[in-house]
Amino acid sequence: MLSFPSLKSCLTAKPVPPNLHSSLSDSFSGSKSLSFNPQTGFNLRPKSLQIRAMEASLDYHFGTQLQTHIKTPTSLKIAIIGFGNFGQFLAKTFVSQGHTVLAHSRSDYSDTAAKLGVSFFSDPHDLCEEHPEVVMLCTSILSTKSVLKSIPFHRLRRSTLFVDVLSVKEFPRSLFLEILPEEFDILCTHPMFGPESGKNGWAGLTFMYDKVRIGNDDPIISRYGRFLDVFAREGCRMVEMSCADHDKYSAESQFITHTMGRVLERFGLESSSINTKGYETLLKLVENTAKDSFDLYCGLFMYNNNAMDQLEKLELAFQSLKRELFGNLQSLYGRQLFEEGE
């Protein structure tokens, strides 16, 4: 064990002999950082630029090494408002990646949340007081406005990131810009998959996003990047696209897909022992679309300005096909009558 002289012995120590002064001065003459006075002892002199540069270099080297051993936290505190099937579906992956997940819904999902490792809050005030970094709305399209207005924004931290996952994009974009405080960030997204299509993983599935309003501060940019990384890590195909372009393309694909599935459902397709591959595809289409609520389909129509055009084009295409079929039938019937007359 190291021993140190007592304070009393230091105060009563005899003066250093003069001959020691010269030897110590010679020892420190290269650095010239110390001076000796027989009456006052050693005094610090200003250090040379070389010494100071060496020490600064050591400090920088040490700081660099220290930074390499300190990892920036990547986990997020994500609040899911609307904890139905889709909210639970996303929560499983969030939790598996080590993120803290909070949830709120009108229905009591506390037992389901506990099994998933999610903290459930029946009161949105209590959830917001947990100060989540990200608030994700997983509500239906029809209820989005009322749910958004019910959130106690004053209990959240400023610059909280708000995210939606609706199947339409222009509607939530306008709604967020209208209702959310200006200091809140906005990210509109559409995971173009669900509990059925994504049950075996998200690799190769499309995740669309639009940076509607993202601040320039480093912590804000980092948080935004970490959130997108949740989906990138799962292998999603990340597509950045404007909300307007999304709704245009979505009306041409998603809305028409849902429309044909519901038409065929009402048509009453039945399976048989001689199903073709094409017929099996139609049966699968009916099965997938029937699992979604009619509110979703209604929302795709009501809140996408392009949906009406697509519905009219579909009707015109069907009428055109009927006219062509009937025209060929009349032509064939006319030839048969003419041949019989001859």
UniProtKB/TrEMBL annotation:
Q: Which GO terms describe its molecular function?
A: arogenate dehydrogenase (NADP+) activity; prephenate dehydrogenase (NAD+) activity; prephenate dehydrogenase (NADP+) activity
What range(s) does the Prephenate/arogenate dehydrogenase domain occupy? 76-342
**Keyword field contains Oxidoreductase:** yes
UniProt cross-references to SUPFAM superfamilies, sorted A to Z: NAD(P)-binding Rossmann-fold domains
Q: List the Gene3D superfamilies hit by this protein, alphabetically.
A: NAD(P)-binding Rossmann-like Domain
InterPro entries referenced in this protein's UniProt entry, alphabetically: Arogenate_DH_2, NAD(P)-bd_dom_sf, P5C_Rdtase_cat_N, Prephen_DH, TYRAAT1/2, TYRAAT2_C
Q: Which Pfam families match?
A: F420_oxidored (PF03807), TYRAAT1_C (PF26213)
- GO biological process: any one? tyrosine biosynthetic process
Q: Which UniProt keywords apply?
A: Oxidoreductase
Q: What protein name does the entry list? A: Prephenate/arogenate dehydrogenase domain-containing protein
